[in-house]
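<goal> How does this chain fold?
<sample>
Here is the protein in question

***
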Amino acid sequence: MNRSGIRNPLVTSLALALLVAAAGACAPAAALAAAPIPAPPAINARSWILVDHFSGRVLAANHADAREEPASLTKLMTAYVVFKALSEGRLRLSDEVTVSAHAWRTGGSRSFIQVGSQVPVDILLKGMIVQSGNDATVALAEKVGGTEEAFAQMMNEYAQRLGMKSSHFVNSDGLPAPGHYTSARDMATLASALLREFPQYYALFGLREFQWNNIRQGNRNTLLGKDPSVDGLKTGHTDEAGYCLVASALRNGMRLISVVMGSPNEKGRADASAALLSYGYTFFETLRLEAARATVLKPRVYRSASEFAAVGVPYDLYATVARGQATSLSTQARLSHEPLTAPLAAGQALGELTVADGTGAVIARAPLVTLAAVPAGSLWTRAVDSIALWLK
């Protein structure tokens, strides 16, 4: 570190290189170079995308921002709104929901709930996610929003907050309707938000089947039975939308999300999703470069009671690179201004941590913040430091 406590990026690069050398000091330099990355596999679908969940890097895409009919992928947005209500205490899994005639009459796929019956939220969620039941979906929307129209307004508000720029919803179940659309990129954004914000409910997307009223109902996501690393998320299909699938897999700490929209058949969407996931895991790797709230710097803070401040990133910082390129990465921490003076609030932004690849291009960044408040020092400390600052 230099006098301000900033890590030297050359030292970071050297440390990475030494780690590799320790693993195979006699290996020729060519053996350490990254393997060439081929083009993504040919995908038979109108639009698709492959994203690393932790770093956010897009690994492959085609027409990812094109507006598409989402079909039952819409239910991921419905699930997000319902999970919000659960997490905020406005709804409980044990709450009984009265099935309205409107919900019961909803066309398309069904989870076989009866009009006027009382069904727990937990069962309705399984009916929506596993069976893709439109009746269960509308029942949930009416419970949370009062009416399905009001619930759709909530869906659009949350979509805007998530940065879903190519989406608009007019219903909760995904049946075709004018003005009802999304994009592959937006679906990946939504899937990542579900993983990040509601880990306590994510296991619902991996259920292979559930039973209600003595009727066994199976999940249409066939990848759940073929690939043990796949644990979600949702299928969709209408004649207009084609066959769609948002899938997520976790292998060796690396989580990928694939979105395929407009595939010609059920097998095609599964094969396309599997091909994208295989491509991502074969040619890329994701590294956690800094842990959330770990101390990165300890710069001097004048006029403070503690003299130094613990500074770090507020969340885990990841980077996704081609396999074999880890040794080319370098990190650099920069404070926006010095000298620092107390008081400093906890979480106050003081600078930025950047990660660059071998070409010098920045591939990841995160704010540097104070990990704890730094109060002002005594009158004597403030006076002495004021003199020191004047003399600098």
